[in-house]
Design goal:
- It is a single chain.
- With 325 residues, the chain is of the alpha/beta class.
- It has one domain: Alpha-Beta Barrel (TIM Barrel).
- The protein has 14 helices and 12 strands.
- It has an 8-stranded parallel sheet with strand order 1-12-9-8-5-4-3-2.
- Strand 4, helix 9 and strand 5 form a beta-alpha-beta unit.
- Helix 8 packs across helix 9.
- It is globular, with a radius of gyration of 21 Å.
- 50% of the residues are buried.
Amino acid sequence: MTLFTSFTILRIFKKDVLLGFLIIFQKMEKRRIVEILKTGKILVSDGAWGTFLYQKGLNAGECPDEWSLSHFEAVKDIAQQYVAAGSDLVESNSFGANRYKLEHFGLQNKAEAINEAAARASRQAAGDDKYVIASIGPTGKMLVMGDVTEEEFYDCFREQAVALAKGGADAVCIETMSDADEAVQAIKATKENTSLEIIATFTFEKTLQNEYRSMMGLTPVEAAGRAIEAGADIVGANCGNGMERMIDIVREIRSVYPHVFILVHANAGLPSNVSGVDVFPETPEIMASYVPALVRAGANIIGGCCGTTPAHIKAIKQAVEGLKS
C-alpha cells in the first residue's frame, strides 16, 4: 500500500467518523417545544412555586429568587417534584429576578448569578428529556409613569434572559404581564440575544361587562397580538383566574389566532382570605375536570399558578392522558 493510498483511506475514515458523530448529534438534539406542539400533543407544565418556597422555610421579607443561590437543592427539589408529578415543562425560581425587583433587597448586582443558578436548578431537575421554561416576571416599573425607558426595560430583560440561557433554559416564560410595552421589550431582548423559545402570558380580570382585561386595559386578543408581533412563539394567560374562566380567555384568543400555540397557567380557583391566608378552593380533581373543555377551546399547554401543587399537576396530567382514550 502506497503512502498516498494510506492517507486517502485515513481521510475517508475520518470523514465517515465525523459524519457519524454529526448524525448522532442530530438525533440527540432536543426538538423545540413548538415542533412538539405541531404534532398535536398537549403538554403539561408545572404549578405554583411561591407557596412551595414558604413551605421549605422562606421567611416573609426574604428574597425568594435569592434562594436559587443560598438554597439551591431546595429550589431544585421543587422542580423535581413537578417532574415526578408529570410535568413536561418546568419553570425556574426567577420570577422576580430582574434588577429592579432585586434592588429592593440590595441584590441588583447579583441578577446574573441568581438567574443562572435558577435555570441550572430546574435544568438538573428536568434532565435531558423535559423542558425548562424559565420564568421572567414584570419589573414593577411602568413606562406610562416615566419610571423607566424602553431601553432600560430592554437592558434589564436582556441581562435576565442571557443568564437564564447560560443556566440551561430551553425557553423563557414571560408571565403575569399586564403592560404590552413591557412584555414587548422582554420578548425582543430575549429574541435578539438568545436562541431561547419565547412564551408570553398576560393576566386578565373579568369586568362588570363580562369582558376580560389586563390591568392596563388589554383584551386577550390585543395582548396576544402584541406578543406575536414582537416575536413570541407561544402566548396565553396565567394567574388571576381558575380553569373555568381560562376556557373563555383561550377561546377568545383562538377565535382570532387559529394557528398560534396557547399556554394556560390557571390558579386553583379564586381565593378566599381565611384568617389572613389566601385559600384556593379547587381540588386537583376539580381543576382536572376542566381540561377537556380547555383543550377543545384551543389550549396546547396546561399548567397551574397560585394555589396549585404537584397533586394538581398529576391530576391534570392524567386528564390530558385520558384525552387519548
